[in-house]
Amino acid sequence: MLPNMEEPLVGGKSEKTGGPGESLLVIEVKKQLYLAGPLVVGSLLQNVVQMISVMFVGHLGELDLSSASIATSFAGVTGFSLLAGMSSSLDTLCGQAFGAKQYHLLGIYKQRAILVLTPLSVVVAVIWAYTGQILLFFGQDPEIAMGAGSYIRWMIPALFVYGPLQCHVRFLQTQNIVLPVMLSSGVTALNHILVCWLLVYKLGLGNKGAALANTISYLTNLLILALYIRLSPSCKRTWTGLSMEAFRDILSFLRLAVPSALMVCLEWWSFELLVLFSGFLPNPKLEASVLSISLNTLSLVFRIPSGLGAAISTRVSNELGAGRPEAARLATHVIMVLGLVSSVSVGLAIILVRNLWGYAYSNEKEVVEYIARMMPILAVTFLFDDLQCVLSGIVRGCGFQKIGAYVNLSAYYLVGIPAALYFAFVYHLGGMVLILLMLLYKRMKGSLGAVVKLLPCDHEVMGSSPGNSLLQKCRERLRTIDPKWSDPSLDPAQAGATCTRGCGSD
To answer: Which of 37, 259, 295, 395 meets the CB 3.0–4.6 Å disulfide criterion with 402?
Structure first.
């Protein structure tokens, strides 16, 4: 039996009539699995679009593979990470609005996010148009730079689709509507294989066809979700049509969107930058190709903890919006156990397929053998990815994105990347040391994040004292951002029910 996602976990019907074995813990596990399962699969299928494109290009030749790999990394650093990061602010805004039963605000927040992301996409498109020249300026191999520039120019239309797609996904996810997201991603992934084959081989467009296929597939996914939102009765309360309200309070939206983007981008950039720097190593075609494949693989399996992080973000934001901090606390305990189980299982699977995985990307024996040596390192890296990903989900649900940004900045950019580059280029240890050292600093980030992130969450979100809880903080922020929401007669639980605008801007 599927759990009722809107029913209060603590103090509600679930607590009173759960029946034998239906403890609060069991009910929470069911809720998280119901959310996390489709979110993990949907996230995997969304991520696989660019991976399929790189796979098709990889069989055209080593230069095509390295060019597409560098272009994909550059696109991630300068474009997709920004759009995904800013749209992740909807995890807090829409999630808390839904928990507070302020349903009409979800549609307004979605429109507001799209309005902000559109001009940002224009700026990024200009940068992408000069990718080849930018890479040459920084000393990238000329052949790779020109190939990457050509590939990414054909991906420019994808920018204007990817942002709205992410907003639609968050809009549905925060309402606990996850099956349509998974199904639309599945249809898109299957269709993408056909589109890539037609454009790359049948029409002879080569790597340009693979880049263009990304736009077609993202657009397919967006149209499916948009039609679902427009026609489905389940979205009738949250989507009431276009509204001029979306043009208001842009600055208050940016107060949360910018830290959200920084939190996502600082981590995303750290790994993509390693691929870009690999082009400066000896034998850049091999190093760039193998490192990109390794990080693509890590990105693929990362979708599992990413789905868990999305699930806990939704659970925490919904419960806080509804004024139920104790239920949010229980949810965080459950997700840590689920994360541990998933990390061990996936790490073992990575090791088992290490000698076969390289053939999915290349027929070159040198590439396949190098990837096989990388896979055990990736397996260990994933163990730490899982921890920090679920912690990040808790942070997004609470609205503490600035804390997450500070942790990512210190772990990666003050220590991790400088150390990795020093050993790779000064001691000539190659691309493998880049992954090894980033693994070390992911461990440091996980430990630091556990302390820095969970301390404020435990004290402010889950503390039993109403005066010190996040619910009270939401009241104070609302009074600053929008005075008409201020009501001194509200108790903290009611304040949580209005925690919808600007919550978590700290």
So the answer is: 259
Distance of alpha carbon 26 from alpha carbon 233, whole angstroms: 29
> CA 257 to CA 113: how far, in whole Å?
9
Task: Count the neighbouring beta carbons within 10 Å of the beta carbon of residue 138.
Answer: 11
Judge whether 178 and 39 are in contact, CB under 8 Å: yes
H-only helix segments in 76-232 = 81-87, 89-99, 104-129, 131-137, 142-153, 156-173, 179-196, 207-231
- The stretches in the chain having pLDDT less than 50 are 1-2, 4-21, 446-457, 459-468, 474-506
**CA 80 to chain centroid:** 10
Task: Measure CA 12 to chain center.
Answer: 32
- The Cα–Cα gap between 209 and 14 comes to 52
**Cα-atom radius of gyration of the chain, to the nearest Å?**
22
Residue ranges in 279-358 assigned as alpha helix (H): 284-321, 325-352
Residue type, 164: P
Summarize pLDDT for 185-232 with one digit per residue, the tens.
Answer: 999 999 999 999 999 988 988 889 999 999 999 999 999 999 999 999
Break the chain into its structural domains and give their ranges. 23-496
Q: What is the pLDDT of residue 467?
A: 44
Task: Tell me the whole-structure pTM to 2 decimals.
Answer: 0.76
pLDDT in tens, 382-400: 777 777 778 878 877 777 7
Q: Provide the residue count of the chain.
A: 506
- Distance between CA atoms of residues 285 and 279, nearest Å: 7
How far CA 439 is from CA of 84, 163, 435, in Å, comes to 23, 30, 6
Considering only CA atoms, which of 378, 381, 383, 385 is closest in space to residue 352? 378
